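Database export, one record per block. Field names are fixed; values are copied verbatim from the stored entry.
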Amino acid sequence: MVDKNYWSSDLPHPLSPNVIDVALYENYMVGGSSLLLGCTKGLIPLSDRQLDSDPWYESPTVIVGDWRDNKHYYSNILLDGGLCFTKELCDEILEMASKNCKRFISRSFDKKLDIMKIANHFPSENDFKYKPKFIARMKNDYTFYVWEF
């Protein structure tokens, strides 16, 4: 397990989304409520709630829990890098999102970068049970996938 200082620190780009990435999330979002899976600093302002099993900060908007266990509907569910942990987790997150949002937006890494401490799965569009509606590749390091359900 990676300690909280790893997540709460200002990670360098591309591990942490830059202003262009944040704008892409915002542009892909539909109106309504938004849930952020995890607590990515740059995406917190885009979300109404944040769901994380071990959040690095306390707030009335934080829900402590497993991403896969979300049962509440949101117009948007946002995720940054979370599809890269394992294929099983990737599939389970996508299945949860298919039932609990209109639009699921995820930035996923295409390969292991030297600065990554954890990441074992690097999905491509052919790996997903549900086909993304939009795909935006960014500088051969990561890809934005957007699903509409």
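Remark 1: Confidence is low (pLDDT under 50) at residues 1-7.
Remark 2: The first helix runs from residue 4 to 8.
End of record.
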